[in-house]
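Regression report. Comparing outputs from two consecutive submissions.

Submission 1:
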Amino acid sequence: MESGAGDRVAGVSQEASGGAGSALGSLGPAPDLTIVVVTWNVRDLALRSLESVYAGSGPLAVEVVVVDNASEDGTVGAVRERFPQAVVIENGDNVGFPRACNQGLERARGRYVLFLNPDTVVGAGTLFTCAAELDGDATVGMVGCRLVRPDGGIQYEGARRAYRLRHLVYELLYLHMLFPRSRVFGDQLLGWWDHEGRRDVEAICGAFMMVRRSLAEVLGGLPEDVFMYHEDLSFCLRVRRAGWKIRYVGEVLTVHLGGQSSLQYGSRLGILEAEHKTKLIEEGQGRLYAFAARLLFGLGALLRLAAASVIHLVPGTERLKERYPRAVDLRQHRTIALWAIAPGRTRRRDPRFALQQSRS
């Protein structure tokens, strides 16, 4: 850990042992773990996720805080009916994923806080094992577990490196897809590793992030300058820069469906991905690298636009279009190319703007 990290550890221990209990004593003993779940039009998935949380809490005293971002599918009513013990925060607008997580953090009383996606099913023993890891090592600030798809395949985002400019280059050339197990091109997701066992990593996935509450509060919660997409990587960077380790525990797992809220944005999501990856590179490597990233995004978008245009003109490519819809999305490539040249002109393509317009 960096110099002075021992003071931070002591500060967290003192705050965790007395802060929540003294401030919120009227609510009863502080729980071990607060689980924050942000929802947006994923009612059935959220109910299944909460069921797994309560069933898998084991000996831990847990509280659940559900923050709903103006769902229109009855999520709030269904959660209140099925899980009356949960705290529900109902937003009138979609304030974005990080801001909603921070609303949950503000209500949290547990020693630890788990930011959990609503499209997950927590495995047996996962909550207890991850909390025990934080209990057992005072240098660890945040813990993640193995993430698997519904078919059992590993989601390699569960343990990865911080995002760097070289990773963007590999992505634009599809080298990370062509050689996913390479120690060079598969570097960002540690694709050469089976993701079993334990190790300290640079970053974990926001689908399951268990962090010391006091650390999250000191860092100001998740970065709110990001509406959604890659806020977890930014938060992980800040955790490590504050002198804390991030521990990956591969012996326990969580099933993660993945991308269910983001599917509702369609092609508009591409601009958020480009913008936020550029911000990540700037935060981690500096402005010059971020400028290079913007240029690369623009060049990559133009090349992909040309390739996608050809694919749309060639007969017999329907299966290819179905398998790789984003790769042949002409609107997305045009938008990213325009963003690289003139960011201000892409505002109406931004999901944040679209949501504001739909509710005005």
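Submission 2:
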Amino acid sequence: MILILRRISSVLILKGNSSINNNNKRCFALGIKSIINKFTIYQYMIVFLIILHLTSAFFYGFGAKSLIPAAIAVLTATLLDFAINYFKLKTFEFPQSAFISGLFIAGLLTQNLQWYIYALAGAIAILSKHIIKIDQRHIFNPANLGVLFVSMSFNVSHTWWISSPLVLALIFGVFMVWRLRRFDLAISFLAGYYLINSIIGLSQGAQFQEIYYTILNGGVIYFFSMFMLIEPRTNPAVGKQRIAYGVLVAVLFIVFHSFIPRHDLPLALAVGNIFVPILNRVKFEFKKKQSKPSISETLKIENY
């Protein structure tokens, strides 16, 4: 009898310990979640982009001078957006989205350009956000449009040098995709791009090893899909539309890369942005075929 009681008590103790461990795990998970939720998407993006700028500048050979364009683009975009918002709303609020646009512009355009090119790109980004709208939402990704405008107007290149720390870019990028719940968009773009590109490459005699290295070294592609493409205001609101949008931008990128390689990615995103209002109005619903009722069901319906 004593042995039985001891066994019962030991089982109860083990169950109690397991429940305590489960509660501790839940508390730990809730604690981490509450810490993550203390910061906004804008704050995370600003911190991540600043880290990528600094890492690229000091550990990848770009040097401290590469940060001067960032200062110019950020100041131009931030001050202009601040002035427009104050004129419209009479409120003093730090324009975080404009700060982000400036960081993107400086990180995508090549260094050693004239200072006014970075300033103009920042101004175009902010003006497009306030002027080119549908249903109170800006159509174009502001930073992307600013980069595209100056690169086509002044025939300058965009090197996407901010994506040089690939491991950091992937870690930050996956986090941003997770926070914005845009895995469907990022994966559909990457899958569409690499699948179509691989088929084209194989048809032209490329080896599997070449395709493997293309996927492995696609730092710019990964950065684009996890930072630029997922900007929430310029992509579809629903999952199925986002998947279609991701594949569309991938196809546009491949086409433009064949004919206008100097402006392929920004142009693909800008053209893709134009289709977003249309995709938001399209419903991807497939009606299920109604199966014919069985004989027994027919007899029940007809009261036989």
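Expected: both submissions complete independently.
Actual: both completed, but the second showed a warning that disappeared on reload.
Relevant detail on submission 2: The longest strand covers residues 133-134.
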